[in-house]
Design goal:
globular, two-stranded antiparallel sheet, alpha/beta, 22% strand, single chain
Amino acid sequence: MATQLETIQIDTAPNPTASVIWMHGLGADGSDFVPIVRELDLTGCPAIRFIFPTAQTMPVTVNGGYVMRAWYDIFGPDLVRREDEPGLRHSQALVEELIAAEKARGVPAERIILAGFSQGCAMTLQTGLRHAEKLGGLMCLSGYLPLAAKLADERHAANQDTPIFMAHGTLDPVVVLARAQQSFEALAALGYQVEWHDYPMQHSVCGEEVEDIGGWLKKVLG
């Protein structure tokens, strides 16, 4: 099944029975998180297909209209005061295409994990909580919950109990810790089971976090 987004694929072993669709942050591309796959301890996990899509290009307002890879526009550093709802929903449809493509290759929805960093994290929550079939899990790194006020009305019951891994840097100057904590609290208030982690880092990924990601993947896929 063809999708609109270019992707990089890494299989941990032949004939994967689980998939992780991992979305990059603003200005990056699908290659950004590829090196992490070999750092993960996936002992005991089945064969996993890691899929790293590359977002389309668009002018980004907060960066002076510079054209770059982005899942949606960002209007200001606050991130949520004014949001690019059309952009979010357009990319949501593209991520849904990736899920459908994995299902067409024989991986059931409950063995598909959505993952993302920063904007990719926002897309993980935007798509995963609205998806009409139960997914394997949502991995949310250094990001936040977009369109939070609409979630209660738009969420799908299929993913009410889907495991959510949420990680953030306490020194993050891009998506400040308070923004992530507000997202965590909003999800908790709606009854989602969120596993929260924070680390003394900025807008990045650290070794301890990679260990925790591996442990979580083993828990939800093993």
